[in-house]
Specification:
Blueprint: E1 11-15, H1 19-30, E2 34-39, E3 50-53, E4 56-59, H2 68-76, H3 82-85, E5 88-90, E6 93-98, E7 104-108, H4 111-122, H5 124-149, H6 162-169, H7 176-183, H8 187-192, H9 213-220, E8 224-226, H10 232-243, E9 247-250, E10 254-260, E11 263-269, E12 274-276, E13 279-282, E14 305-313, E15 323-326, H11 332-338, E16 362-365, E17 380-388, H12 403-420, E18 430-436, H13 438-443, E19 477-479, H14 490-505
Parallel strand pairs: 1-2, 1-13, 2-9, 6-15, 13-19
Antiparallel strand pairs: 3-4, 5-8, 6-7, 10-11, 11-12, 14-17, 14-18, 15-16, 16-17
């Protein structure tokens, strides 16, 4: 039986108005709790940030939106529908995969159209393999969703059951790179279906095959675009929560948690104000720094970080896709550069530290192709995400990379790479820009200077990842967000908000 917060839980304070905090607040309010959300920023969003200048709206956080059914289920907790709060546009081309040999492949949401693209580029044999692999992805996702992702786990024993045995029989605990390689002979398709492991903070050459399900969310099930940009998602959730009676206190930093008798009795704000609480949901990236008695992971391994360059450009850039994955020529070398130290357990003085990709693979998003509200006439918004080492040497990171000095030079390199890979004229057309590096992520409170939190190594996945109700610390504090179960990504943190709420209310489904 899943553990719950004991005792009275009428008044709940949620720390953080990111997606996890908003999801928890909606679930709690829908279950009749009195809910207050405290957020140090001036509005909702957390990692899903926004910069608006000169008619350009730049999303500075996640750029790929998947699994709208999770968002719809979150809003349903207070009787809302997704359609009433947001307009979702399905992308016919989920990604354009651009390869170093000059070829490209459009990944379509429609499997027949996708198979036709693969047949034209890679041959009919690979197209047939694609259909088999997409069916395998869908089954793998179905198998894992209820058993491993969409539930609270208190112990590895919670996994025992037929699903675990089936997953093992399907090779789910082998290496992802080998799993993908069994289906595809073409190296371009192997890359396309394994790069997602980096979202989980691990190399596809070391990730278990079960992580193939990440590709199901975007390639298998398709990508959506919320009109108004990704930042429209937390704004819609916050509006629905406020309409349902949730109180929001923006611009308020939390100084600490007041405890009595093994429970938190109030959340103490930086100005000394106290918010009485019967239960608290903490969504900070390193909750052990706030929650008394809570221990952090013993040997945390953090995901690689990234440099994210966001641009508002007065240029047409005709023919570009909404999302482009631009692969460099190097592949395994890229992961060795980003996370070399992980081959030595615990890091230590002998561990090599990560470095910047010598032949970068990039995620380039141009949402104004789909949504003209994000840029003025004749302009576009453009985001470039380049993975980099984090700041934690035990995770293969490199705190000695001086991003204050390196940042401007790396910006020039990224712009040069964009120009060389078909985004001609971008550099001279920039009107607005914003760039984040590992240092700016760290300044925002993200552990190890990475927005991707703890990596999904085997020892930090499922029941081995910090649970939403830890066994140490006050008995009425629950956790949500990227660093706890089930993990990283917009759908996962929305689910974590629900799982946290259910530790307080019990299981409540809309």
């Amino acid at each position: 039986m899943v553990r719950r917060v004991p005792g009275r839980t009428d008044r709940v304070v949620v720390v953080g108005a990111g997606l996890a905090g908003l999801a928890a607040a909606l679930r709690l309010r829908g279950a009749g709790r009195e809910v207050t959300v405290v957020e140090r920023g001036d509005g909702p969003g957390g990692r899903a940030g926004r910069v608006e200048r000169s008619g350009y709206a730049l999303d500075t956080g996640p750029s790929v939106f998947t699994a709208p059914e999770v968002l719809a289920d979150t809003l349903a907790a207070v009787g809302e529908t997704l359609e009433d709060r947001l307009t979702m546009v399905p992308l016919q081309t989920s990604y354009r995969a651009q390869f170093a040999d000059g070829s490209h492949l459009d990944v379509h949401a429609d499997p027949d159209a996708f198979a036709a693209e693969v047949a034209a580029l890679c041959g009919p044999g690979e197209a047939a393999a694609l259909r088999r692999y997409l069916a395998d992805l869908a089954e793998l996702y179905r198998l894992q969703l209820n058993a491993f992702i969409d539930r609270n786990l208190d112990s590895p024993l919670d996994l025992l059951g037929p699903e675990l045995l089936t997953l093992a029989r399907r090779g789910g605990f082998g290496r992802l790179s080998r799993h993908v390689g069994k289906y595809f002979a073409d190296d371009r398709l192997r890359r396309l279906f394994s790069f997602q492991a980096l979202y989980a903070g691990v190399s596809p050459f070391r990730a278990i095959a079960a992580y193939a399900v990440i590709a199901q969310l975007d390639i298998g099930a398709g990508v959506r675009h919320p009109v108004g940009g990704i930042a429209a998602v937390p704004r819609a959730l916050a509006a629905a929560a406020a309409d349902a009676g949730v109180e929001f206190r923006y611009g308020e930093a939390v100084a600490g948690l007041s405890t009595a008798g093994g429970r938190v009795d109030a959340v103490v704000l930086a100005d000394g104000d106290r918010l009485p609480a019967d239960a608290v949901v903490v969504t900070t990236d390193a909750p052990h720094t706030l929650v008394p008695g809570l221990r952090g992971p013993r040997r945390p391994v953090y995901s690689p970080s990234c440099v994210a360059l966001h641009l508002g450009v007065r240029a047409e850039l005709r023919g570009q896709a909404h999302h482009t994955i631009s692969f460099g020529g190097a592949w395994e070398q890229v992961f060795d550069e980003l996370t070399p130290g992980r081959r030595l357990l615990g890091g230590g003085t002998g561990a090599r530290r990560g470095d910047i990709m010598s032949d970068p693979s990039l995620l380039i998003s141009m949402p104004s192709v789909t949504d003209r509200s994000l840029a003025p006439e004749g302009g576009h918004v453009l985001s470039v995400v380049a993975p980099t080492p984090n700041l934690d040497p035990r995770s293969g990171g490199n705190p000695d990379l001086n991003w204050d000095m390196l940042g401007p030079r790396y910006r020039e390199e990224l712009l040069g790479t964009l120009e060389a890979r078909g985004f001609t004229g971008v550099t001279d057309a920039i009107e607005v820009e914003h760039m984040d590096t590992p240092l700016t992520w760290a300044a925002q409170g993200m552990a190890a200077g990475t927005p991707f939190a703890l990596a999904h190594t085997f020892g930090q996945t499922g029941p081995f990842r910090t649970p939403t109700l830890p066994r140490r610390g006050p008995e009425n504090v629950v956790l949500a967000g990227s660093s706890v179960q089930p993990g990283v990504g917009m759908p996962m943190v929305l689910i974590s908000g629900r799982l946290a709420a259910e530790r307080i209310t019990g299981q409540v489904r809309a």
